[in-house]
Amino acid sequence: MKFHPPSFALGVGTAVLLMGKKQHLRPVVVEIAALGLHLGRLGLGLIERQREHVEDLFAEVTERVRQKAAGGAHGQRAAHKSNGASGLHGEPSS
After folding, report:
1. Model pTM score
2. What is the DSSP string of 33-67?
3. Where are the stretches annotated Disordered (predicted)?
4. Whole-number Å distance between alpha carbons of 43 and 38
C-alpha cells in the first residue's frame, strides 16, 4: 500500500484536535449515548406491547378451539358475538 502524506497529515491533525478538545466533546458524547439508551428503551417497550398483543390473540384462538372442541352451541354463538372483552369492561355485547 502506498504512503499518502496528505492522508497521514489529516489523520495526525484530527487526532491532535480530538485530544485537545476532549473535554469539550465529552458532553456531546454523553448526550448522544443517553439518547441512544432512551431510544433503545422505547424500542423495547414497543416490542413488549406487540408481544402482549400476540399473546392475547393466541389466547383467543386457543379459547375458540376449546369451545369448538366442546361442541356447545351456546359457546359457539357467544364466540361469534363477542371477543370476550365486553364481559371484562362491563360493556354490552353486540
Report:
1. 0.47
2. HHHHHHHHHHHHHHHHHHHHHHHHHHHHHHHHHHH
3. 68-94
4. 9
